[in-house]
């Protein structure tokens, strides 16, 4: 039974997150319905990450085990043909190597958070960016973010419903940069806690807006207390942009 590795892009707005749910639309449900329409198989796909309601992806990775040995290009084209009414697209398909798993073989996840930092609200990107009218100091945000890099107890930035066994995570990259009218926050790690990226983003915006000093982020991290976290950023601006594998 061949396993196919799929690169997936989606707009998270129409879905109640990636994970399949009995009565609510999901990205997983849309892909599995397309697999059934194409191959006749009812199955569960596996993904590198389970994004929340409203979160987008340009580089999600999933795998699917099909009973028939199809050419990868056929799999990609057939799935996209059955996803035309969905906000989901299969960007690439490959036959996965023996023992490869979309989730367990991953050694890096990369997230981007987009903030539109201007007076005028978004027209074309409504629901795809966090709109902030107040000018943000991205350099102060970047300086503050460096306190988050490394191995830490991220309890402060962990959602109360997080099911991870430990709050200990290693954040490899925390970068804040201005790109035209937008401020981009890049985060890279092997794995993240539930809503960790949105919690860190909301806290760093407090620094950019001048309500927090850069050192306050380090103090919040060291508090190991969810109450020390700043406001949680909305899902609108968050994107899963890539997943790393040893191959």
From TrEMBL:
A matching Pfam family: PseudoU_synth_1
Catalytic residues in the record: 52
Keywords: Isomerase, tRNA processing
Keyword Ligase: no
Binding-site residues, substrate: 111
Domain Pseudouridine synthase I TruA alpha/beta: 8-104, 144-246
GO BP term, pick one: tRNA pseudouridine synthesis
Superkingdom field: Bacteria
Record bears the keyword tRNA processing: yes
EC number of the protein: 5.4.99.12
Transmembrane domains' residue ranges: none
GO molecular function: RNA binding; tRNA pseudouridine(38-40) synthase activity
Catalytic activity: uridine(38/39/40) in tRNA = pseudouridine(38/39/40) in tRNA
Assembly behavior: Homodimer.
Annotated family: Belongs to the tRNA pseudouridine synthase TruA family.
Function, as annotated: Formation of pseudouridine at positions 38, 39 and 40 in the anticodon stem and loop of transfer RNAs.
Protein name: tRNA pseudouridine synthase A
UniProt source species: Caulobacter endophyticus
Upper lineage: Bacteria, Pseudomonadati, Pseudomonadota, Alphaproteobacteria, Caulobacterales
